[in-house]
């Protein structure tokens, strides 16, 4: 089994910053892709940012230029630095990892609320 534990969510004012972390543990041989998704109230889950095993990153248009994804392979950890946060960024944020055996695992989610 593989467990993902997210942290770093919270309440922040518009224009503020947060850094999310997600640590993977358990039966992990090799991690391919790592990513962050979010789900706002009444909406479907959307991809926010991805990073490949080689370090290639991709972002949704709504966060490009404001969010930065990174990973520490030695720690099986993926980060999401979120700057210039907007109220529309309010959502539950989930991390996801795809292992070399192509199985996908999800974290339990961490709430991010952007409000004055």
Features:
116 residues, mainly beta, four-stranded antiparallel beta sheet, globular
Task: Please describe what this structure looks like.
The chain is mainly beta and 116 residues long. It is built from no helices and eleven strands. The strands form two sheets. Strands 2, 4, 5, 6, 9, 10 and 11 form a seven-stranded mixed beta sheet that branches.
Number of helices: 0
The count of β-strands is: 11
SSE string, helices as H and strands as E: EEEEEEEEEEE
The unreliable regions are: none
Seen as an oligomer or otherwise, the chain set is: single chain
The proportion of residues in beta strands is: over 45%
Short description:
The chain has about 120 residues and is mainly β. It has no helices and eleven strands. The model has no long low-confidence stretch (mean pLDDT about 95).
Mind sketching the topology for me?
Layout: E1 2-7, E2 10-12, E3 18-26, E4 31-39, E5 45-51, E6 57-59, E7 67-72, E8 77-82, E9 91-99, E10 104-106, E11 110-114
Parallel strand pairs: 2-11
Antiparallel strand pairs: 1-3, 3-8, 4-5, 4-9, 5-6, 7-8, 9-10, 9-11
